[in-house]
Structures are given as structure tokens and as C-alpha cells.
Amino acid sequence: MGACQALHPHSQKPSSPSTNSSNPGYFLSKPVCAWLACGFLSLALLHLLCCSPAGTQQEVFSALLQHFNTSSASVSSVPEGGGQSCDYSEGQWVWAPGHARRYNATECNVKDSENCVRNGRPDTGYLDWRWQPAAAGCELPAFDAAAFLAAVRGKHVAFVGDSMARNQAESLVCLLGASAFPSRLVYRDADPGVFQFRRWAFPSHGVTVSVYWAPFLARATGRVDDYHLPYSSVYLDTLAERWSAEADTMDVAVVSAGHWFLKWAMFYNGSEVLGVHMLPESNHTEIGFVSPFREVIRKSVDRLLIGSGGGGDARGDRTVVLATISPSHFEKAWDDPTTCARKGPYKDEEKEVDGEAAELRRVVKEEASAAAARSDGGATTIKVLDVTKLATMRPDGHPGAYMHRDPFAPGKPEKMLNDCLHSCLPGPVDTFNEILLQLLTKR
Ligand SMILES: *[C@@H]1O[C@H](CO)[C@@H](O)[C@H](O)[C@H]1NC(C)=O
Ligand SMILES: *[C@@H]1O[C@H](CO)[C@@H](O)[C@H](O)[C@H]1NC(C)=O
Ligand SMILES: *[C@@H]1O[C@H](CO)[C@@H](O)[C@H](O)[C@H]1NC(C)=O
Ligand SMILES: *[C@@H]1O[C@H](CO)[C@@H](O)[C@H](O)[C@H]1NC(C)=O
């Protein structure tokens, strides 16, 4: 089911990720299966049934309309920081009314479950923050569509990875589309409700933006294709076919993955089982998520290094951007309607980057350094889009219950599927693209 891809029934307890009582493990018990199936089924029904009466939303919409800041998408009013490159990875969210009201997500056709405004989310304060880098003299300029398109003129910008890669691609298309430069969708999956492979063209600058859904980056079967299956089989020796076949066409490749490695998986090298993660009853060795993740990141970057993938050289330089993990914020049971209902960022020092997120982030940074050394003098530039800290601080930026349209209209349900992983659009993920622009324009 498209609406549920990569939406894990986490009950995030960072301290004991693999012994979680509501993580059913290898063999889901029958009642849990039934509940899951029922949950997803009712989600589908909800999508089908509840998406028509828009009248009651009109007031909220028009209030928001007055506050939507359309200028911020094309005007950069913050000083550029003298062309120096900044460290954007540490900092804090500061109150900046209107700053993040960058576009109307209905107009850029985002996935319904991320269109929080349309879905009736009543609080809008989550759109009033901007990221202030900690480094002295560093500012993060507001997104500048003209500057972005100029920086990638004639190029193919590809987002490769899990649904966070897709979330960021959608944000970019909305940010660019809110400007004077029209775009058109030139490719999508056969089922319009599925957001696995998409491509948009920006003819004014000859730019294309694509999404390649490959949640493990490597070839994978099982749960990745069918959410009712208990685990994914991941073939660490083979990259996922579609993106790796088209890697040579990518001038900018933003690689964003990690979440799926934290859940039920069996890892293979060819036909040999290397080990498992969270499948104790399979009788295979638990090997955790770090080494499989590292293996796949390394292999993916190698595929993208010009000169090693074969035939890519003709297109000139390539920039590979490795995004670090954006943690989810399930604060209660995954199906509790208030599991991520916060209305503002965490305060300074209220939340640290730790646990699984810290480990995944570390692997990405280490592999980026190692790859930069391997490609030294080559035509590939490796960058890290380190968004872990800024994403960690934004428990308020997810759709939560507002992944459904008007979730509380029929009264407050006891249990429902929540999205505490992806970002509302507009929302904090737009900041990832503001940083991406700086990475692409600064040396
Ligand atoms: C967003 O755009 C849609 C379609 O054009 C429109 O119906 C809606 O009122 C807009 N919402 C806001 C908050 O501007
Ligand atoms: C709109 O965005 C611009 C650029 O970020 C900012 O300078 C201005 O203060 C914003 N206006 C409002 C009403 O928030
Ligand atoms: C997979 O098998 C090949 C050939 O047997 C071996 O060279 C390689 O190191 C193995 N990879 C892993 C991750 O174990
Ligand atoms: C794992 O081992 C136990 C004990 O030997 C056995 O009962 C069980 O069937 C095995 N499970 C699988 C999936 O092979």
C-alpha cells in the first residue's frame, strides 16, 4: 500500500530498540497480524471515504492563506556569509514567524499524508521557525529557487533511498515550483497513489529532479514490497536495480536511507545468509544494522564515483550528497493518536542525538570521508547533508495523526496510524533543501 511505505509501526524506545514489546519480531502473532491488517485496511478506507467534505476546512485555510509567505521561496534576504562554507549541522531553531510558510503543498501535489495543512492540522506554529547554525558568522539563507536552478542548470538531480529521500524531493519540487519557474511531472508510477519513482522537469533551466525509491539501496524483497510480510530480505552484494542502472545519468545524487535497516531484516551475500536483524526466531546470527548499512553506503558511493561505475565520465562532474538520518519521534505507542502531537521544537539540551540515529549518522560521515579519499582528484565531489541534529529537535514537524484528513472529525479514536517519521510539507524538511543549496553552491 503506497500510503504506508516505510511507515513503521515503531514504538520508539531508543534505549532498547530490539526488545521492544510492541515490535512483534520475526513471527508476528496472529492477533498482531490481524490488528495490523485491520489498521492498514481502515487507513485505506479512511483515505477513500473521508477525503471529500472540504467546507469545514475553509476557515482554517483562509486564516493560513493570509500568513503564507510566498516571497520567501524566491527571495533570499539573509546575508550570504561571504561565500565561505558553514557548518550547518549544529545549531538551534529560532522563532521566526512566517519563515517556513514557503508554499501551498496542494499546488505541488505532495503525497496526501504529508499535506498537513490540507489535512486540517489546526496548529501552525511549526511553520514559524528557522535554523540558526551555531558556527560564528554563519547564517542559513532562505531557499532561493533561482539560485538553485542556476546551480544545477542542465543537470539531473536524483534523490535515492527510502521515503525520506522522497519526502525531501517533494519538498524541493514545491520550493522550486513556488517560484516563477514552472515545472511539469514527466514520469510517475502507474498507480498515481504510489510515490516510488517520479521525475519532474524544469524546462527554463533544463533541470530534472527524480526520485528513486530503494529503501535499502541494495536489492531487497519481502516486506519492502508487501507490508504484511514479517521481514525484508536484503542482498548486500547487489544494488537495487533501477537507481544503479541509471546512476550514470545523475549529476547530483542525494542518497538518504537508514530507517529500514533498523527493522526486521535478513541480510544476504548472494545466496548465503550473513545474518539477521531483529529476527531471533530465525536461528540466524543477529548482526545488527551498522555493518549492513555501512556495506550498502560504501557500495552505493562506489557506484556513484565517476570512473568506477563505468561510462559515467561523459557527463562531467558529479556531486554525491550523503544525507544523515532524520529520526522519528514516536513518544508513545505507535498507534496512540497523540504519539507525536508536540507543537514546537525541543528546547536547547532537551534532546540529544543518540542511540541508533547517532550510529547511522556516524557511519555516513565516516563513509563520506573514506569515499572522498578514494575519489581524491577525481570528478566526484562527496558532501554530507548532516540534518540529524536539526531533525532531532523537531518532534512537531511530522504529520502525526494529520496524515489522515480531519482525523478527529468523527471523535477522538483510541488508536490510529500516525506518521511521526516524515516531515509535513511545508515543514522542517524544507530546511534540508536550504542546506543542500548551500552545499551545491559553496566549495
Ligand atoms: C492551496 O491551494 C489549493 C488549490 O489551489 C486551495 O484550494 C487552497 O485553499 C490553498 N490553501 C492555502 C492554505 O492557501
Ligand atoms: C517573508 O519571508 C521573508 C524572507 O524570508 C522575510 O524577510 C519576511 O519577514 C517574511 N514575512 C513574513 C510576514 O513573515
Ligand atoms: C560476499 O562474497 C564474496 C565472494 O564469496 C566475498 O568476496 C565478499 O567479501 C562477501 N561479502 C560480504 C559482505 O561478506
Ligand atoms: C530454530 O531452532 C529451534 C530449536 O532448535 C526450532 O524449534 C525452530 O523450528 C527453529 N526455527 C527456524 C525458523 O528454523
TrEMBL record:
GO molecular function terms listed in the Swiss-Prot or TrEMBL record: O-acetyltransferase activity; xylan O-acetyltransferase activity
Keyword entries, A-Z: Golgi apparatus, Membrane, Signal-anchor, Transferase, Transmembrane, Transmembrane helix
Membrane topology annotation: Single-pass type II membrane protein
Keyword Membrane: yes
Region span, Disordered: 1-21
Family: Belongs to the PC-esterase family. TBL subfamily.
Name this polypeptide is given: Uncharacterized protein
Taxonomic lineage of the native organism: Eukaryota, Viridiplantae, Streptophyta, Embryophyta, Tracheophyta
